[in-house]
Each structure stands twice: as structure tokens, then as C-alpha cells.
Amino acid sequence: MATKRTSRATSATRTTPTRSKHPIPPRARINRIPATEVFPVVEGGLWPAKATEGESFPVRATVFREGHDALNVEAVLIDPDGVEHMRETMYDIAPGLDRYEAWLMPDRPGDWTFRIDTWSDPYATWTHDAAVKIAAGTDVELMLEEGARLMERAATGRVLPSRAKKTPPPQAKGQDILREAAEILRDDTASVQHRLSAGLSTKVRSVFRETPLRDLWSYTRSYPLKVDRKKALFSSWYEIFPRSYGAHRDDEGNWVSGTLRDAAEHLPRIADMGFDVIYLTPIHPIGTTFRKGRNNTLEAGPQDPGSPYGIGSKEGGHDTIHPDLGTFADFDFFISQARELDMEVALDIALQCSPDHPWVKEHPEWFTTRADGTIAYAENPPKKYQDIYPLNFDNDPEGIYRAIKDVLITWIEHGVTLFRVDNPHTKPLAFWQRIIAEINASYPDVIFLAEAFTRPAMMRTLGAIGFQQSYTYFAWRTEKDEILEYFEEVAKETAHLMRPSFWPTTHDILTAQMTTGGPAIFAIRAVLAATGSPTWGIYSGYEFVENVQRPGFEEQIDNEKYEFRPRRWDQVDQYGIAHLLTLLNSARKRHPALQQLHCITVHPTTDDRLLCFSKHVPAQFSPTGEEDTVIVVVNLDPHNEVIGSVDIDLAKLGASVNYGTGGPVLEVVDELDGQEYSWGEHNFVRLNPIERTAHVLAVKPSSRR
Amino acid sequence: MATKRTSRATSATRTTPTRSKHPIPPRARINRIPATEVFPVVEGGLWPAKATEGESFPVRATVFREGHDALNVEAVLIDPDGVEHMRETMYDIAPGLDRYEAWLMPDRPGDWTFRIDTWSDPYATWTHDAAVKIAAGTDVELMLEEGARLMERAATGRVLPSRAKKTPPPQAKGQDILREAAEILRDDTASVQHRLSAGLSTKVRSVFRETPLRDLWSYTRSYPLKVDRKKALFSSWYEIFPRSYGAHRDDEGNWVSGTLRDAAEHLPRIADMGFDVIYLTPIHPIGTTFRKGRNNTLEAGPQDPGSPYGIGSKEGGHDTIHPDLGTFADFDFFISQARELDMEVALDIALQCSPDHPWVKEHPEWFTTRADGTIAYAENPPKKYQDIYPLNFDNDPEGIYRAIKDVLITWIEHGVTLFRVDNPHTKPLAFWQRIIAEINASYPDVIFLAEAFTRPAMMRTLGAIGFQQSYTYFAWRTEKDEILEYFEEVAKETAHLMRPSFWPTTHDILTAQMTTGGPAIFAIRAVLAATGSPTWGIYSGYEFVENVQRPGFEEQIDNEKYEFRPRRWDQVDQYGIAHLLTLLNSARKRHPALQQLHCITVHPTTDDRLLCFSKHVPAQFSPTGEEDTVIVVVNLDPHNEVIGSVDIDLAKLGASVNYGTGGPVLEVVDELDGQEYSWGEHNFVRLNPIERTAHVLAVKPSSRR
Prior knowledge:
Strand order of the largest sheet of chain A: 11-14-15-20-21-22-23-24
Shape of chain A: globular
Number of helices of chain A: 18
Largest interface: A-B, 78 and 77 residues
Oligomer: homodimer
Strand content of chain A: 15-25%
């Protein structure tokens, strides 16, 4: 807007020397045809909204004008080079409220922008007025002549008023079409209907659509979009404690740690399940001072390996590998093995130190010193965490910033492309905003996942200032209504601020609902997580339905944080969960609808335990060029069969529907067992914990029907 | 924020020469303790939010920080000279959602700003931690020593970190209090409880409240507020067609127009009813070409005076007075008479021309010329308004702008201080934004009222870009729920964008509900308008319960627009409406609660026809220094008695409540008949169209009870 207004003012000054000074600064001047309340805009445009390469997202604005003449609205997407990438007509989605929407899709990462163009549409005004007035026999010749003049003007591309921004006129062929229409409009030997039709023909409409006559063209300022690579939105994480892989007791009964090389042996199994991110909990040396024992006890025994979150010992800190796990060469090997399997490696970043961390001696100013001269350990009075020294980011922010930047770059240079950031909400947001921006400036592919389980404002804002992915409340949404409400919230209300990651469990989270219901509830939650969000994650051992809580805590007993947890991987198939994870990831990979966040529709069912939603990508925005629709139905009851009906709202579903003689027909195939069904508006469903607890129904493309 | 961040960066650069370049531009950097989602902010701060001298308004922000330390939030109001006028602590109004609120009040018109200050509150952190830890017997001496050090630091005003913005330390007396507390905190001969209490004493708290230690002090950018004079919010309009006053038939039966001097004779009566704005429909010469006759017929008879909205004849245009009404001397007399009665004069501005307007010949380029060379009249196909030529603001925007500015200044120089703008939504918003700003730059007291009855986005935006007052949907809100919802919407959701004006009828609006119900419905709607909004208006003749519609139209038959409507003012008291208007305006003048917009509370009743709400001003923001509360109860049924109960939510009412032995007691007096009642939580009410159809209950100040 600023640019345009300025140039307009300049030209007006030339032609109208007596123009009085405008009392409103240019950027605050309302447009000739205003677009307000633009979405997605974060903090008035100070921070970019989130978007992802290859995913369409909705743009909205409130647009209206004076009087009765027609207006037109376009959403314009501008690429990082400043080139107009896409221009989509916006449509009124809330008649009476003047709310317009279009969907845009960037095709590569970078700093994009979008804006809203508004203009007076003289052709739409004429088609409306001419049709009404000629039908009423009013001003017939006048309307036809005005139509002819409009065709002639459109052929030259001459917009009104003459000082408005211009666009090129139509190609020669389009000009001919318009001039011919003008001739017929003026041909008083022809019938009025024939003459009018010449101005309303498909050909003429098409010329106006291709090269509209944008009278009074104005546009908003450009709003920033940070477009991330596809994996920022669509990824399947698998979390491991590498030391557990290959951990065993030696002949004397002493624990021997697993290593990075042991863990690397499991990568093919994990890749086979379809996971594309392997997430390592911290791999650094672990302190011994106040080391925690099994089940978070205060006294560690000699066999207790300590929590990998108690980072730092005389062997090193955040830029060091625990000697028990191996060397940087082993780490590089792990990375290379993962890459061969098309997996990326995520590393845990827990910015805290054990009392034995080298920084404690080298940089006591990076911690808080108490009145008694000791360094403050973590506490939330009266709780104490004496094995952890939190960093104090305010004493020497520059020094600490450089040190952490160096740590991150160390791992990035060794091939880490994702960081799972532990408790980012206990560090200043200003720190995260700066370091993520600076890392991404040099390494634009690096993705930060915020592990913040805290209040909504902090969660949203961590996303808004830079984190590409965020843990969510998914694990605590257990009832049908709250699950669906949350799915819609993350897809529609907060998607421009944070990209959700759904985890049924983590090493820190085992909710009450997981403790009963056996394999069925693990299956139910996996289906919900894998289909409810394009990014999801599984904590190693999920396959074994590990479901016993430490008494009084919402986490597993014998938490892997404090001990080695070797698992019987030869028996991994016993509950069918590993197979289910494989099927889910396979469906996710083959269905663009499951790879995007925005287009979710909830469908009613006849039972409170029966949940149904669908995801959809229209052909225009599908990487395959074909529309894609997946309908998910889940029986939330892990104990009982539920029989009921699912009512599909076909208008909202998005999919092209075959209207057979017996009503609408959707041919669907269940991605979990290959069963095929014909679905319509009302569908009988029977789901139970034994045979099948969910449907993941892919709608067959209409072209194949 | 920008200022502070810049200065911080500068000082940091000096002390830390190796600081790496910050990748985020200063204004986009998130604060150390962030405040986001600030309200009221219009279009990201591009346009000022509305506020009024002497009215408090709510400011909100989402504020949170990392970790567990305490934060503090203040809303800061800055006057047009850049001086901090008010600083109010904000409180969490939605625990869990981190939403903070404070109320601010400007004391004069002008361009004000506000911002949100956030800081780390070391005293609040210490009081919390010390109380918890000492109670648990943990770190007792350490906590006491840290308290002592905090007292000492507060005495010097030394904030942390040292580069943070500073505030002056406490006065000498405050310093003494803090140092004395430090001594006791360290006195190991005293009991722990005694020592801790020294740090928590009222005196110490008071010093911290007066001169807080604002560690990590940061603040948002300043958001603009346009503060208008009090009448922009609180005014009582009375609309007249001056030509009807004194209009009569002469001896031959020919109509003789009333004059401005005739109308001036009625000013005392109107002032006696308590109205403070006299609004004149257009007083300019009226065209004869295509003049409309009685009841909007196409053919005017020789006796038909024409619509005052068909402006302009050979006698002049918008800057001219209709010769039948008088001269500028007569107009000046009218103004002076009004002023003597403490009334201001509002003039109708209808920016359109009759075909006979001088501009049509002088400036054909200010209109739209059709293909046949004629000037386009107003139409909304197939409807035609051949007596009206709309201005075309796009051909010569500068020329037309200057002409209209001259018109406005002409009337302002003659004493007009308010303009009722006819159909502003049929002219470009850019025009209004500019002309209102430019007029207000020279004449800051001039108030523009937008007569836009159209879709919400246009209505809101006309307010947002400059109109001080707006007509509303009030006349069409007739059911209890929709009335109360609308009252809350204008008070809480859109008050920063538009100031509502409630009119039960106008010369263009007579809704269906007014046509039955006789005087009762006129009374009901007057009570709702006068108490529901600080600005309201009455169209002359309301006193006579003129309630017959022109068939098929939502307006009066024999619309005064097209004919003289002399009224029998000697019989004005026959329905009691004039008396009611007087009582309502009197209550409005005496009760600050009815002069403000924001503080409205809805109370439940036992009947759908029984509506109750209250308005409240706390003592802090009351011009009298005393709190003021008014409870309004209306029986919406103009035909039947309603007996029911009104449940007053005392917590939300705001008023100080006397708790008697039988429960809470509010002594109230009905402003409409002087009856006194003792009200509590549940109140019996009997209202009917004969005795009383509403209560306007003033709560007596607690000091007088």
C-alpha cells in the first residue's frame, strides 16, 4: 500500500498543484476499496505467520466498498525474490459479514509475503445492471452502448481513473473477442437478447477473467510468511534412548551400556515402520553429583546410569558424546545409516547443567549464585532438583548465547537437522527467537520442536517466534468432543502460530487412560495421533504396550530416564502395534490429505464413543494432481464393541461424489486391512477391540471409479 | 519497545564488542517478558482506538514469562504531550490464559497513546519463595539473607540486570524502612517468624508498591488512542425538520413554510426535556426537477415542498440556506438561541445533488456521465432515484474534496459543531478518513455521526477511520436476548471502533414493533435507548406516538421528508412521552453510570419479556468521586403486565452492598417516579403498560445509607 499510495500522491501532485496536504500518513490511509482484518497476521505483522512448502493455507480479509458497484478481491502470494507466485480470487464465505477467503500454496521454503488486492469490477457491475435493466426494459440502448464501451476500454486495458495502477491489456486474440462483442452490442439490427448475450458470452467472460479490468486497484501492505520445508509439517518421529539399545549385564551382573552403533542396528526396523525422524534423547556425559537413581530416587546406585538430562561431567558438556555411547565417529556413522534409510536425526537440547558440567567452573556467571555463595539448583518451592543447575540467561546473555549457538552448530555440522528442545518455556523467549532465526539464516533446513507442556499463551508464542513444531495437549484430550475440538483448534485456529506434534506417550508422559485398555487403547491413540496431525511421534516401547505408571506420577514406572531399558525386540510383533504403526505411516505417506493440517472436517455419529473426521486435499493443491480424501472412524472404547452410524456431510467432505441411483456413493478402502466399502451419507459402522478398532478409509479417486 | 531495545543494543555494543548481529529487526524482537495480543488495537495500530475524556476503558494483554519467577504488568497511559498520565497494575482476568486487564482514563481530548510495561518482580518472587521454604524449614537463613539483600538493593533502586531501564529509588523514608527491614531479617537473635515478617510488613509492601524494583523492565510499542470530547460519547439528540415548525396554510389554503426563527421558538421546550443536541435535517435549497411528492410519489404537486435531501437549486447548494427558512442571520440567531440553552446544533450533510444543484453545471466532472451524455442519477437497478445525482468521487477527487471541505467549514464557522452524515457508506471511506482528520485538525470539537444502516464491516470501519458517533441496529433489536446481546456487543466488543447512538425511530425508520403497542412501546423503546447507550436520539413527533407506516415501507406514512408536518405542540403532553423523555434525560445527566459505555452487566430474570441490566462507574473513575450504579428493568410487552423476579448478580453489579441481617441490601430509588425500594439478590417486579413499564433504579451511594 505504502508504495502505491506514494506514487499516486506524486502523480497527483504534478497534475493538481493546489492539492492540500493529506492529514493521514500514507501507511495509515484506508484503501479506496478497503481490506481489513487480514488473516493470517501475527501481532500486526511483526512476526511471520507459518506456512509450509506444498501445503495450501487459507487467507482471509474483510472487504467491502461504498455503494452498489461490484468489487473483486484477490489474495496474492509473493515469493522470497519478490515475484508474484500466485493470485487467487477470494470469495465471500460469510455473506453479510463481507469476509473473503482464498487458499494459497508456496512451493519452496523461505521468507514469503502475501497481500490482498481489491478493485472495482466494472464488468461485473455491468453484467449485473445490464441483465436487470434490460429484463425490465429500462435504458436498453444505453446499457448496450455502455457494454460496448466497456469492451472497447477493456481491449486497451485502460483502467479508471487514469491514475490507478495499470495491468497489461489482453493479448491480441482477447482484444479481438472484446471488439467483436462491442460491435454486436451496437448492432441495432440484431435482437436485444442477442446483443446482450454478446457481452455475457463465455469467451468474453474468459477474457475478463484472464485480464481483468482492475479499476481503482489498491492493495494492502504485504504480510510476512515464514515458509518451512515440508518436514516441518509432515514427519513421523520415533524416540529412543540409544543407551538402552544393546544394553546388557555382563558376566558379573554389571550393566553394560548400549552404544550408538548398537542403536544404529535398529534403524532398519524403525525405518520399515515408516518413521522418518529418529529422535535421540541427550547423548552427552551425565553428572554424578546428586545423580538420580531408578524411579527418580535421590540416591543413585553404582549401577545407575543417571538421567541423560543431568548433562555434563568432567568428560564434557553439551558438545560432547557420552563415552559409553561412543565417539563422534560413531555418531557420524549413526547419521549416515539413518540417511541411507531416508531418516533424519533429531537431537534433544536440554539447556541445563549437572553440577559437574564444565560450564559451572568455567562460567559461574551463567548460573545464579545464591547469597551463601552456592550456585542455585532448579527448584519450584518446595520442590528441589539438586542435580540440575538452570542457566541464568540475564547475567551474560551474549556469552551464553554464543556458547549455545556453538553447541547447536557442532551438532548441525555433524548432520543433525532437527532439535527437540526440552522445556523451552523455562528460558527467555527472546533467546529462542534470536537463536532460531540465526541458526536458520545459515541452516534453513534445521527444525526446532518445542517440548513445552504449559499454558496456551506460552505454547502459541513459542511457535509464533520461531519453533517449527510444538508438542501439544493431544495426550490429555481423551473424550470425543474434546478430541475433535482440539483437532479443529490446531488445524484452524492456531495453525499459523504453531505446528502441532501428536504423541500418544513420551518417556515423560503416560496418561491414566493408557493404563487400562491394553493394546486396544494403544492402537486407538496411535490412529488418532497419526491421522489427526501431519506430525506425530512414538516413544520406543510403545510396541510393547508399556502401560504401568510410577505410583502418583503420569509417567512409566522404571522410567528409562534413570535406567537401562533393553527390550525384547524379537517379540515386538506380539501385540500387533508395530504392524499398526507401519500401516499408519504407510497410509500417511501415500495420502496427501494426511500430510496437511488445515482441511479437516468433523462428521457426526450416533455414539459418544464413535468419532469421525475426514481430511481432504483438492486436486489443485495435491502433489499428485488428484484430489485426496481420507475418512477416519475410531471407536474410543477400548473394552467394548460399538455399533452405530456415521453421517458424512458430503458438501463439507470435499471429495468428488458419484451419485448413483441409490444415492451418493463413495468407494472407500480401509488402509488398515484393505477392506472395501461403498459409503454414502449414512453409514453403518461396527468397531471393536478384537477385530478392528478404527477405519482409515481412503476415498478412491473419482477417475478410478 | 523500539526505543528501549535500541538503547539497550547501543549500551551492549559498548560493553560487549564481540556481540553478534541480531538477526531480528529491533521492533520485531520479542520482549524479555512479552506482552502480546494487546487490546484495544485497531488494524495492528494503524488507526487509533476510540476513547473519550473522562471515561475509563479497559486495556488488555496476554502476558507470561519463562520459568516460575513472578512478573508484574502495568498499563501506561500517555497524554498528547508525551507525558505519562496514568500507570495501573494489570490483573489476570482469565487464570490459565495469562490475560491481564487494567482500566485507564484520559482527562482531555487529543492524540493519546498507551503501552504495556512488563517486569520481573523480585519482591513478589521472594515473598512467595521465602514463605513456602521457611514454612517447610528449607534454606531458612539463606532466604532471610536473600530478603535482606533484596531490601538493600531496593533501597538503592538498583535493578537487574544493570543494563535494564532504571527508575528512581524510594524517598529517604522508604529507604529507611527497607534498610531497617534488612537489619531485622539478619537479626539472628530474633525468631525466624519475626525476621520473615519484617520483610513482609505492610510498610515494606507499601514501599515496593510505590517504587517497585522493576527488574528486566520492558515495554511494548505505544498504541494510538484518539480521545474525543465528552459529547462524542454522551449526548442526547433531538431531530427536527425546521420547516415544519410554524408551517401553516395561508388564507388561500397555500402552504407557508416554517422558518429557522419559528423553530428557534421551540428550543426552550426541547432543552427543557434535557436534549443537548438539536439536529436539523438539511436546510438547503431544494431542486424542482423530478421533485418527489407526498409519500415519495413521482409527481410533486405545486404545494409539495420537496425532500430536503434533494439538495440544490438555482438558489444555491450545500453552502446555502433555503430562502423559505431564512438567512444566515436567522441561522446565526438559531445557533445563538441554542447556545444560550446549552444546546449544540447538528447539521445534516447529505452529499448528493438535485439535478438543479449549481455543481451540476459548474462541475459536471463531479458526477458520472452516461454513454448518452446524461448525468447518471442514483439507482439500484431496477430502482431509480431520478431526483438525485450522486457525486462521483473518483473523477476529480481533489476538486470535490476541496468543495466539500469548504461547505463544512462554512457551517462550522457559523457555529455548527456536529454533522449527521447521511449515507456515508455510499461514499469512499478514504474520503471520510481524510476530511474528518483534516476538519478535526483545525476544529477538534467537531463531531461526525455516521448514518450508515448497512452491513457490520462498513459500520465498524466508518467508526474506526474517524466518525465519532454511529447509528446502530438498535431499532431492529426487539427481543430480550437480542437486545441484551447487542447492548453488550456495542459496549464491549466494538466500543473501541464505534460509539453507538440509539434511536427508537427516525424520519426514515418506523419498525413494525412501533406500530402496535401505542404509547407503551414508545415508552419502552425510549427507556431502552436512553439507558442502553450514552448517546441517543429522538425524532420530533415521538411525543405524539406517530406510529402509522406507509404501506409496504418501514417508515411513517406522510413522511415529513416530502411535506410539512406542523404538530399540535400545545397537546404534546397527552401521552406522557414528553414527560418520560424529560425524566430519562434528567437521570442521564445526574448519573455518570449512564454517561459511559463500557460497564454494563446483564442480570437474569424469570420472564422472557422482562429485561434487566445495570451500568456502573467505580468511585475512582466517577466525576463526583462517588461510585454510581443504575439498574434498569423493562417489561418488553406493551400489552400485558409481567410479574417476575430479577436476580441481581451482586458480584458483577459493581456497587458497594450493605449486608444487612436479612442478606445484602441495595437501597434504590426509581428515577421515573421517585419510588424507593430495598433490593437484594432476588427481587419481585411487577411492570405493566398502565402504571409503569420500566424501572430506572439508582442505587443510593453507600455513604448515604
